[in-house]
Design a protein that fits this description.
Elements: E1 11-15, H1 20-31, E2 35-40, H2 43-52, E3 57-61, H3 67-80, E4 86-89, H4 104-131, E5 136-141, H5 154-174, E6 179-186, E7 189-190, H6 195-198, H7 201-207, E8 216-217, H8 222-229, E9 240-243
Parallel strand pairs: 1-2, 1-4, 2-3, 4-5, 5-6, 6-9, 7-8
């Protein structure tokens, strides 16, 4: 049964791989046999990650807010290794503010990264597959905040809700081209980026609202990541899978 999760011979692109979930996703995919293309703005972090991974790793710069950067990325990938098989569309950001304190710059920054950036990368990835008449799998990294809302996160929640709908629309239109599009909607996951926050009293109050009464670990996403990236999910597309310790079913 483990063979259906095997990614030997597949090439996976991971955006936002310089830290947090993207860094962990890259390691998980490599351990399952995938060749990697890791990309982000912080090249030094990517080079350090490459040194931690056994297997083929191509390191490339990427700014998802730049159409030129995205196009250059896929031109380099296609010239180096051919059209990739898997996209982990992970790059994202947040700028927590109360709605009354939002301004155009903050709003556009979050939307352009989390929604427009995801679109740009997915579009170029899809174009590569269609040009070679090749199947593939796109895994968008959404959030439970795309399905519910939280305080001070209007721009983030809106962007992730848009990514959920983009996932479903792409899945519908690309199904007959044998390109599957699904999304993971993580809850609160402990990473190197947020560990200090969750150690505070405010952070602890978030944990108390999770039915399982704990934060998720990066490894808690491994199963669903490999499911959606591999042929184990060959008949799945348009699925949005929460991994949240039951947070979404918390009583109102």
């Amino acid at each position: 049964m483990q063979k259906i999760f095997n990614l030997d011979g597949k090439t996976a692109v991971v955006t936002g791989a310089s830290s947090g979930l993207g860094k962990h996703f890259a390691k998980t995919l490599s351990a399952a046999g995938a060749n990697l293309v890791i990309c982000a703005r912080r090249m030094q972090n990517l080079e350090e990650l490459k040194d931690e991974i056994d297997g083929e790793v191509l390191v490339l710069p990427l700014d998802v807010t730049s159409e030129d950067s995205v196009k250059e990325l896929f031109s380099e990938i296609n010239n180096s290794v051919g059209a990739p098989d898997i996209l982990i569309n992970n790059a994202g950001t947040s700028d927590p503010r109360r709605f009354k304190d939002l301004d155009e710059e903050s709003w556009n920054y979050v939307l352009d990264t989390n929604l427009n950036g995801a679109y740009r990368v997915a579009k170029s990835f899809t174009d590569s597959l269609l040009e070679e008449n090749k199947p593939g799998s796109i895994v968008n990294i959404a959030s439970i905040l795309g399905l519910r809302v939280g305080l001070n996160l209007a721009s983030y929640a809106t962007a992730k809700a848009g990514l959920v709908q983009l996932t479903k629309s792409m899945a519908l239109e690309l199904a007959r081209s044998n390109i599957r599009v699904n999304a993971i909607a993580p809850g609160y996951i402990l990473t190197e980026i947020n560990n200090e926050f969750f150690a505070t009293e405010e952070g602890q109050s978030y944990i108390r609202n999770i039915p399982m009464n704990r934060l998720g670990l990066e490894s808690d996403l491994d199963g669903v990541l490999l499911l959606l990236a591999s042929e184990a999910s060959a008949f799945m597309t348009g699925s949005i899978i929460p991994v949240d310790g039951g947070h979404l079913i918390n009583p109102l």
